[in-house]
Write a structure and sequence with these properties.
Elements (H helix, E strand, L loop, with lengths): L5 H13 L3 H4 L3 H4 L6 H7 L3 H6 L10 H17 L3 H17 L5 E2 L2 E2 H19 L3 H16 L13 H11 L3 H12 L15 H13 L3 H17 L14
Antiparallel strand pairs: 1-2
Helix pairs in contact: 4-6, 6-7, 6-8, 7-8, 8-9, 9-10, 10-11, 10-12, 11-12, 12-13
Length: about 250
């Protein structure tokens, strides 16, 4: 995902899900079910909005409770990103109902799934507020999602797989809030001392692209030239065209 390698990410997510059929999950649900829906992060990462909308829900919503909730989260984001506000609001209602029914004991490594879903809720509210044109509320929600994400207990891999700063930076740029976006990308890449090492994502193609765009639009061409070799190297490894740090950005 960080390399922009869509097919490898999708294939690996499918392989992970295939290893967690009901007979494996049932006796160990609190410890392993949370890994089953990792594909949702991949689908959002690569803007697979129509594919997300078409997804079927789990046949056993109680056993796959976190999966159900994360799919509703993904559907909310997908409908919001494509401008269907009523469908996004309906998916958000489904998300909230699934959250209320999810066991509080479910975990992903060091993280409670309920804490992970707090990040999801701030993200979906931010995406929905943004598409409604309430930008102040949207950015407040997205900054809250960043804060929640940063404060999740340390895990490898991360409890939340799609960096919240990537959506925040992309939408700030879409609104020409370039200096704010620059700070977001610098922090994500570890170019300043604002974040603990575990919260940084050095060399990732998404933030490199965003930072390079910020510097170019600000007319700081000398600094943009310093970023360009690392960006070119990262772009060469991706299997998709990188236009923004998040597919939720439309322009």
């Amino acid at each position: 995902m960080f390399l922009g390698q869509r097919q490898v990410a999708l294939d690996t997510a499918d392989e992970l899900a295939a290893s967690l059929p009901p007979e494996v999950v049932e006796p160990l649900a609190d410890w392993v079910e949370g890994f089953y829906p990792m594909k949702q992060h991949v689908l959002i990462r690569f803007g697979e909005w129509e594919r997300i909308k078409r997804q079927a829900l789990p046949e056993d919503p109680q056993l796959y409770a976190f999966t159900l909730t994360l799919i509703h989260y993904a559907k909310t984001v997908a409908h919001a990103a494509t401008g269907d506000i009523p469908a996004a609001e309906a998916a958000r209602d489904d998300y909230r109902a699934a959250c209320a029914a999810m066991p509080e004991t479910r975990t992903i490594f060091n993280n409670l799934c309920t804490d992970i879903l707090a990040v999801a809720e701030a993200m979906l509210e931010g995406e929905l507020s943004y598409r409604k044109g309430d930008f102040d509320a949207a950015f407040a929600y997205l900054r809250r999602s960043v804060e929640l994400d940063d404060n999740l207990p340390y895990d490898e891999p991360w409890g939340w797989m799609q960096p919240t700063r990537h959506a925040l930076g992309a939408l700030l740029l879409e609104q020409d809030r370039i200096e704010e976006a620059e700070a977001v990308y610098r922090a994500d890449l570890g170019f300043d001392n604002t974040l603990a090492r575990a919260c940084q994502h050095p060399g990732n193609v998404w933030s490199l692209h965003g930072l390079h765009e910020c510097l170019t639009r600000l007319g700081r061409d000398d600094e943009a030239m310093l970023i360009k070799p690392a960006l070119d190297k990262a772009l060469a490894r991706a299997d998709v065209k990188i236009r923004y740090s998040c597919y939720c950005r439309g322009m």
